[in-house]
Amino acid sequence: MNRLGVKEIEQILPHRHPFLLVDYIEDYEPGKFAIGYKCVTFREDFFKGHFPQEPVMPGVLMVEALAQTGAVAILSLEENKGKIAYFGGIKNCRFRGKVVPGDKLRLETTIIKCKGPVGVGHAVASVDGKVVVDAELTFMIG
């Protein structure tokens, strides 16, 4: 297993707090897949307004966390080191559950297609084995 802490993730991704949404990578294979985690706490900045009476992690941030996890897989390739992965599209995205403070969000993105600087990843986020988001994410390496 290839485990990465936040400092190692920061060497691969350009994101920083508060927008770095992956706390650690449990395992990855460059160009193939990455499995990461976001430990969701009540102190997340977005909970101040989404929603104060019932804190729920915004769906777009769950998708972003999945994209960052996939970016670890694609940007850890030697030829992509130091580059940025940009969103190219989101297909077949489905939100299937809420993510709330105290949840440990499991993020898994598998690269299913890559041609030149463009690729596609299949992304699934889950909490305690229950899928909360799944999507197909298109990326461009720049």
From TrEMBL:
GO molecular function: (3R)-hydroxyacyl-[acyl-carrier-protein] dehydratase activity
Keywords for the protein's UniProt record, in alphabetical order: Cytoplasm, Lipid A biosynthesis, Lipid biosynthesis, Lipid metabolism, Lyase
One Pfam family from the record: FabA
Listed InterPro entries: FabA_FabZ, FabZ, HotDog_dom_sf
Primary location group: cytoplasm
GO cellular component: cytoplasm; membrane
Subcellular location: Cytoplasm
Keyword Lyase annotated: yes
Annotated signal sequence range: none
Cited SUPFAM superfamilies: Thioesterase/thiol ester dehydrase-isomerase (SSF54637)
Residue stretches spanning the membrane: none
Catalyses which reaction(s): a (3R)-hydroxyacyl-[ACP] = a (2E)-enoyl-[ACP] + H2O
GO biological process terms, semicolon-separated: fatty acid biosynthetic process; lipid A biosynthetic process
EC assignment: 4.2.1.59
Protein family (similarity comment): Belongs to the thioester dehydratase family. FabZ subfamily.
Function: Involved in unsaturated fatty acids biosynthesis. Catalyzes the dehydration of short chain beta-hydroxyacyl-ACPs and long chain saturated and unsaturated beta-hydroxyacyl-ACPs.
PANTHER family in UniProt: 3-HYDROXYACYL-[ACYL-CARRIER-PROTEIN] DEHYDRATASE (PTHR30272)
Name of the molecule in the record: 3-hydroxyacyl-[acyl-carrier-protein] dehydratase
Annotated organism of origin: Blautia obeum
Gene responsible for this protein: fabZ
